[in-house]
């Protein structure tokens, strides 16, 4: 998309002036001003005409012997024209050198030479083009931002109407700031770009295709920024808009459209929303099968993703079928790394289906193909442990987990996200074996990694909630509360205040306060939990009913027996008691 932005910039500027591509002073600030090429052409013709006329009127000797005031003026005028012609030609050559530059280094060198001949206003579009190139390469976001800032100062002048070009500059500002982890600044620029594009759309822009390309870039960058900030639900909305734009611009069987569907499916999987992920995963598969055939790599990757989605939906047989089809293609293409991960996925599906010996045999084959201290080898031992745990071979299971932890310990600084996910999985197995203290220790270690990664705020919230819950189970109630409170805040920021996960956390907070003999605080937490559960799951859901029962207990502990009894009677009658609870708590 960043490469496309550079192409789009050239396209936009060619529409303005086909003779000279990128310069703002000629193409955007003053459309009526003559271009350098037209000046060059006009001056050359005028000079030729004067020279020819002079030759007809005068002989050289006469000119030298008897110079006249008129001839002196004409000579001076010709000299001025010649000087102006040279300057125009020099500018033209500098422009040509800049336009022919292919690498960022060549562009920067050409730009440096131009700075002596062009003023800042004339360099606006060239600054934008270099900024886009640097942003595309991603190696020096500070330099990309400096050129974007120069372009913005020229293009965003008072009196200049909102334009597609301004939206492009703002998108670049947003992207560069995102790369520098200045997320709030990035959001400000991107939101402004989005507003400008919305206004241009309402006004009926002539360049609909170009506008959609820029809008796609803005929406995609908004998704990146919000993901980096941990605001996953908002990022999903931006990714959906990206897909809608691509559906309007691309052919139905376009590979790029298939990839966009898969990208959205992956984003839903990341927040464990497998139900929403499924149609986009299936759409990606249909597009790639139609355009590339059943044996393409993209089809294999779609099938592997569908295996993960079906596993999340607990349709394990379907998951295994998709995985096996994926493995056949990956094997044909010799994609060993993808194949190893697909085989690990398959073993986890076999475990879910209760086929433990089959899973162990699969993993024994995989482990022989892994490097000694690789993350992939650690994942093999984690899955092996899961199979052994299900066979109640706890000593062997723990040995596998210890091997995995020794490998992962060396990878924390290199792959913090992957290691955090692995620690979380290991902790879950220790929970299964009732090794709660070990599980808590590992989850705290996981948190120490996730707290440094803003984009993993949703994972931080989930892990913090698990730590709080385990501390409650082990009787460490006072220690549990700050973990649960942190979890609630992180998940609200990531998924919104009405997400069912937030409801479970408030339910646990209520239980903690009730344990500490603080029934009024408990009632407040249970009331919030029930309100969320009713919205997210429905008032008849078993967890909504449980929240209502907990609310009754809290009011009973406060001595408010009438209200407690009312909740017991109404726990299957949705929505009738909440107004009274909120009034009591206010």
Automatic annotation (TrEMBL):
Q: Where are the TPR repeats?
A: 420-453
What InterPro entries does this protein's entry cite? TPR-like_helical_dom_sf, TPR_rpt
One matching Pfam family, short form?
A: TPR_12
Q: Which domain of life is it from?
A: Eukaryota
Q: Which SMART domains match?
A: TPR (SM00028)
PANTHER family attached to this UniProt entry: KINESIN LIGHT CHAIN-RELATED
Q: What name does the UniProt record give this protein? A: MalT-like TPR region domain-containing protein
| Protein species of origin | Hevea brasiliensis
């Amino acid at each position: 998309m960043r490469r496309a932005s550079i192409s789009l910039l050239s396209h936009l500027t060619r529409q303005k002036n086909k003779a000279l591509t990128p310069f703002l002073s000629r193409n955007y600030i003053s459309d009526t001003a003559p271009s350098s090429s037209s000046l060059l052409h006009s001056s050359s013709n005028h000079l030729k005409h004067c020279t020819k006329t002079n030759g007809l009127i005068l002989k050289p000797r006469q000119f030298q012997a008897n110079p006249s005031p008129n001839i002196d003026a004409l000579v001076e005028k010709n000299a001025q024209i010649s000087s102006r012609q040279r300057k125009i030609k020099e500018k033209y050559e500098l422009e040509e050198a800049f336009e022919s530059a292919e690498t960022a280094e060549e562009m920067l060198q050409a730009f440096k030479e131009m700075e002596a001949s062009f003023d800042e206003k004339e360099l606006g579009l060239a600054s934008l083009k270099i900024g886009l190139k640097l942003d595309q390469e991603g190696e020096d976001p500070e330099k990309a931002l400096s050129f974007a800032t120069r372009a913005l100062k020229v293009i965003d002048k008072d009196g200049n109407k909102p334009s597609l070009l301004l939206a492009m500059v703002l998108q670049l500002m947003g992207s560069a700031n995102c790369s520098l982890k200045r997320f709030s600044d990035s959001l400000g620029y991107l939101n402004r770009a989005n507003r400008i594009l919305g206004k241009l759309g309402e006004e009926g822009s002539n360049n609909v295709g170009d506008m959609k390309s820029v809008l796609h870039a803005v929406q995609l960058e908004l998704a990146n920024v919000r993901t980096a900030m941990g605001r996953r639900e908002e990022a999903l909305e931006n990714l959906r808009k990206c897909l809608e734009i691509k559906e309007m611009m691309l052919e139905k069987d376009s590979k790029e459209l298939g990839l966009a569907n898969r990208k959205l499916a992956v984003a839903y999987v990341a927040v464990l929303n497998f139900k929403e992920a499924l149609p986009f995963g299936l759409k990606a598969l249909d597009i790639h099968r139609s355009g590339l055939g059943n044996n393409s790599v993209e089809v294999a990757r779609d099938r592997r993703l569908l295996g993960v989605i079906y596993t999340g939906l607990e349709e394990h047989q379907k998951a295994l079928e998709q995985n096996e089809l994926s493995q056949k293609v990956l094997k044909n293409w010799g994609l060993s790394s993808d194949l190893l991960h697909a085989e690990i996925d398959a073993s986890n599906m076999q475990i879910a289906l209760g086929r433990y010996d089959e899973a162990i045999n699969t993993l024994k084959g995989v482990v022989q193909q892994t490097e000694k201290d690789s993350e992939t080898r650690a994942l093999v031992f984690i899955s092996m442990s899961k199979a052994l745990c299900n066979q109640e071979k706890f000593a062997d299971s723990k040995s596998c987990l210890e091997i995995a932890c020794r490998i992962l310990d060396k990878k924390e600084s290199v792959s913090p996200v992957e290691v955090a996910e692995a620690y979380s999985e290991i902790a879950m197995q220790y929970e299964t074996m009732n090794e709660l203290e070990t599980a808590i220790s590992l989850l705290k270690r996981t948190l120490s990694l996730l707290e440094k990664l803003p984009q993993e705020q949703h994972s931080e919230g989930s892990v913090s909630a698990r730590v709080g819950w385990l501390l409650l189970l082990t009787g460490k109630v006072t220690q549990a509360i700050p973990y649960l409170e942190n979890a609630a805040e992180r998940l609200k920021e990531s998924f919104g205040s009405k997400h069912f996960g937030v409801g479970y956390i408030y339910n646990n907070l209520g239980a903690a306060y009730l344990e500490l003999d603080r029934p009024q605080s408990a009632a407040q937490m249970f009331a919030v939990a029930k309100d969320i559960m009713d919205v997210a799951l429905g008032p008849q859901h078993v967890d909504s009913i449980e929240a209502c029962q907990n609310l009754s207990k809290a009011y009973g502990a406060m001595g408010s027996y009438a209200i407690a009894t009312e909740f017991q009677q109404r726990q299957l009658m949705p929505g009738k008691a909440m107004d009274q609870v909120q009034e009591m708590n206010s």
